[in-house]
Write a structure and sequence with these properties.
The complex is a heterodimer of chains A (332) and B (295). Chain A is an all-alpha fold and 332 residues long. Helix content of chain A is 79%, strand content 2%. The N and C termini of chain B lie far apart (49 Å). Classes of the chains: A mainly alpha (332), B mainly alpha (295).
Chain lengths: 332, 295
């Protein structure tokens, strides 16, 4: 192991340990809830980052996969009695299949047109969910039984804890996958596509295949998270789960933390999600909350477009260089 | 699915064309802004609703006719648009990448502020002629839609004249064709961008005024409208004004036909299905030029 890797391993183990003991130490239901939502936001943003950050294709439509995962899990639970904690991992593959098809169509567009198409995707899913009432129960939504195992519901005081651990497992898996992608030739190809798609194609990368695979992979974790989410709330409806804001929030978080970096989306989630909860707590009503959310997004885009993590890294690098430059000028 | 009689079919197409004209007005500003600035103004829907609220206020407080109120709302929103471009959008470094998110942030902020200010009750403007219908050879023409269509045509004609006959219009068209060349021959790109954005937002204001008497709206309606107009300009070819007009009419008619032949609930999906089909067959849209990859 390279020496530069050692501190990284230490702080990663520290973070993991902290997240492992969190629900045991922090008994407040409210904070446990916020932590589950924060880890989910980190999953969504990290997963989005595979297509949006590495490959540079800004999808605002990942809410479609989130909602699809939610619906599939809820339907499988209600009709076949499949437990969401198990089924969500498999049904995520179905979501990925749908994403591969949609990606094959939508990734023909570039830049802004792609963004528009992905927005449309969310609305298609919402309209379908609203209108296929015989399956989805339409606007009235789907309700699942209270969370539990083997027919025994979990006690209300401890109910957040299983969700904490399954979300933590998903977060580890997502970050691991994102790391593996980044290390691989596949990831390198995606970054080449982001930098210059024409040249990437010229050097022999099958850009369409790479993009579609990245799109599918990034939909998988989002779909699994959607499945867990639908069980966490035990109720979903089309307006609520196919929400364009779900998709935009992942993008905002990834950009805030550092788009295209491994840890940026996670960092962004741990800033944005608690902050969002605080804003709701202070300002209450959803309308003001919207305005504040929009204002923060606007400020980030204008003043910190490359994100916190790259800005920090640059700052540290400059600090490291400065003394060396100072010494040289002294010796001269 | 039900097959309508010929009479109903023609009636439906009439309604579709009337509504399509208003869609054309709504999307004209968006495609113009994209052509000049390479910015997708996701806040266009929010500006439409802002225009609609201004009209609503003018009507409620001063009894101003919704169509005549365009004369007030368009200049007001022109100013707002100019300021937004000058002080927010011009600061973005990489517009093609970042503009969607910046204007989205703007849209959300506006939605929140409008929702706080005007509450979330659904509003609509109901002038005296709101329920009147003109009959012509057994076909029905609702007066609000007819007037909306007429007003939309008038504003589009005005836009056409500005683009074709004025120096500003020539500068705008030159910038759309080739930004660098336009700059070389002395076009002040910053100025053109700010004015184009202002004009684009002014057409949104006009569209909003017409919307206010045909549909009911609240602050969150902006998401429905932005997806409609975005679908139209992608279908028409981004940056192409004639493309947007044709796409608006096609989608207006298709939407009405779906409402009659299938159900009202499925009709919005027409936009998105059309969008996807276009992309498979013709990714650059109906009249868009194939965008060359940057070298």
């Amino acid at each position: 192991m390279k020496p530069s890797r050692v501190p990284a391993v230490i702080w990663m183990s520290g973070l993991l340990a902290a997240l492992l003991v969190f629900p045991l130490v922090q008994r407040s239901q409210y904070y446990q809830h916020v932590m589950v939502m924060t880890m989910m936001a980190a999953v969504l943003a990290s997963s989005w980052n595979i297509i949006g950050g590495y490959a540079g294709y800004t999808s605002l439509g990942h809410a479609a996969f989130f909602g699809l995962g939610g619906y599939l899990v809820a339907l499988a639970h209600n009709h076949f009695g499949w437990h969401p904690f198990i089924s969500t991992w498999f049904l995520g593959i179905v979501v990925m299949g749908v994403a591969l098809i949609l990606g094959w169509i939508s990734l023909r567009t570039h830049g802004s047109a792609f963004v528009v198409v992905t927005i449309a995707m969310v609305f298609i899913f919402r309209i379908v969910a609203l209108n296929l009432a015989s399956i989805t129960n339409g606007a009235r939504g789907l309700t699942q039984p209270r969370p539990g195992w083997g027919g025994v519901p979990w006690s209300p005081e401890l109910i957040k804890i299983p969700f904490h651990y399954i979300m933590l497992a998903l977060l580890c898996l997502t970050v691991f996958a994102s790391w593996r992608v980044r290390q691989s030739k596949f990831g390198l190809g995606l970054i080449a596509i982001r930098e210059d798609e024409g040249k990437a194609e010229a050097v022999g990368i099958d850009t369409m295949l790479y993009k579609v695979l990245a799109f599918g992979l990034s939909a998988y974790f989002v779909g699994v998270a959607g499945g867990i989410y639908s069980y966490f709330f035990t109720y979903i409806d089309p307006q609520f789960i196919f929400d364009i804001f779900t998709g935009v929030t992942m993008v905002l978080i990834a950009i805030l933390g550092g788009r295209g970096t491994l840890w940026g989306p996670v960092l962004g989630a741990f800033i944005m999600e608690p902050l969002g909860n605080w804003v709701i707590g202070v300002f209450g009503g959803t309308q003001i909350h919207l305005a504040v959310f929009g204002g923060i997004l606007l400020a980030v885009m204008l003043f910190m477009p490359q994100g916190i993590l790259p800005a920090l890294t640059e700052f540290v690098k400059r600090r490291a260089k400065a003394p060396a430059a100072g010494r040289r000028s002294q010796s001269a | 699915m039900t097959i309508p009689s010929t009479h109903l079919l023609i009636q439906t197409i009439i309604l579709g064309v009337l509504v399509g004209g208003v869609y054309a007005l709504m999307s004209s500003g968006l495609t113009l802004i994209f052509g000049v600035m390479r910015v997708i103004n996701v806040a266009h829907g929010a500006f439409l609703i802002l225009g609609a609220y201004c009209t609503y206020w003018l009507f409620q407080l001063a009894g101003v006719d919704p169509i005549l109120s365009i004369a007030l709302t368009a200049p007001l929103l022109f100013l707002i648009g100019w300021v937004v471009q000058r002080y927010i959008l011009s600061r973005i470094e990489n517009p093609e990448q970042a503009s969607v998110l910046v204007t989205f942030a703007l849209a959300v902020t506006m939605e929140g502020l409008m929702g706080t200010f005007w509450k979330t009750t659904l509003r609509s403007v109901k002038p005296d002629y709101a329920t009147e219908v003109i009959k012509f050879a057994t076909y029905r023409f609702p007066v609000t839609r007819l007037a909306g269509f007429g007003a939309a045509l008038l504003v589009l004609l005005l836009l056409y004249l500005v683009l074709q006959r004025t120096n500003l219009g020539r500068a705008i068209r030159a910038t759309i064709q080739d930004r660098n060349a336009a700059q070389l021959v002395g076009v002040n790109i910053q100025m053109v961008a700010a004015l184009t954005f202002g004009i684009g937002i002014a057409t949104a204001a006009a569209g909003g005024s017409l919307l206010s008497m045909i549909y009911s709206f609240n602050s969150s309606s902006q998401t429905d409208w932005i997806t409609r107009v975005l679908s139209i300009i992608v279908l028409g070819g981004m940056g192409s004004l004639p493309g947007a007009l044709v796409a608006a009419l096609i989608l207006g008619v298709m939407e009405q036909l779906t409402a009659v032949m299938i159900t009202l609930y499925w009709s919005p999906i027409v936009f998105y299905i059309f969008l996807f089909l276009t992309l498979i067959v013709r990714p650059q849209g109906l009249m868009g030029e194939k965008v060359r990859e940057k070298a």
